[in-house]
Design a protein that fits this description.
Order of helices and strands: EHHHEEEEEEHHEEEE
Number of strands: 11
Number of helices: 5
Largest sheet: 11 strands, antiparallel
Strand order of the largest sheet: 7-6-5-4-3-2-1-11-10-9-8
Length: 216
């Protein structure tokens, strides 16, 4: 199972952030470009090995939460582009509990995984469904996708084994920036289908403090 399969249900730009802000300046692009041209020996870091270490750390955590925004860009009748925004709030407790809330322009839904059941509540339609699943979170996500065709968004941040399936051909290191008061490595990975940028906390706890996944 590859990284792109684990981006199930995401068809726009995903911004995973808490209070991060980026300020424009004339020399920012030049500085980032110059940093991105550093060799691994100069930077003292391998972007690919860093992101694998970060995902392995995330997979080892018993409990964590995050917020994300997905922006879909859709063409309307060849006249104009529409931008649909959905905000996600996710809380996970291994081995078998996930709570995902989405509120946005189209979807307003609560998805709750608890032990051997996944409950889905469509708020606007006032509809409720429950799906039986087996095993832990990883197995349940596979069951939802393969047996029921139900694509859970943001699964690359839910699977415990994402690190094992990363297959980036190329990675770039753009320097160190601060996110939520934490110094972070800023790395990026271009791909045919997705461009991925990650801000990973320095030190013994390589948490993904912010991320951007852009469907090309």
């Amino acid at each position: 199972m590859y990284m792109y399969k684990k981006l199930l249900g995401v068809t726009g730009a995903v911004l995973l952030s808490t209070s991060m802000s980026l300020c424009a300046a004339e020399d920012v692009t030049a500085a980032v470009t110059q940093s991105g041209q550093k060799t691994e020996s100069e930077a003292g870091i391998s972007p690919i090995e860093l992101v694998k270490k970060s995902y392995a750390f995330l997979g080892s955590l018993k409990h964590y939460s995050f917020k994300a925004t997905i922006v879909n860009e859709d063409e309307y009748a060849n006249h104009m582009m529409l931008y649909l925004t959905h905000n996600y709030s996710v809380e996970l407790q291994r081995p078998d509990k996930v709570r995902m809330q989405v509120r946005g322009d189209v979807d307003n839904r609560d998805t709750i995984m608890n032990n051997d059941k996944v409950s889905i509540y469509e708020i606007a339609d006032n509809k409720y469904a429950q799906i039986p699943v087996d095993g832990d979170i990883d197995d349940a996500l596979d069951t939802l996708s393969e047996d029921y065709g139900y694509a859970v968004p943001l699964t690359q941040l839910l699977y415990s084994d994402t690190a094992e399936d990363l297959d980036f051909d190329k990675g770039f290191y753009f320097g160190t920036v601060t996110v939520d008061g934490k110094p972070c490595y800023y790395v990026g990975f271009p791909g045919k289908e997705w461009d991925i940028q990650l801000w990973i906390e320095k030190g013994d706890r390589p948490l993904i403090r912010s991320a951007a996944f852009v469907d090309k």
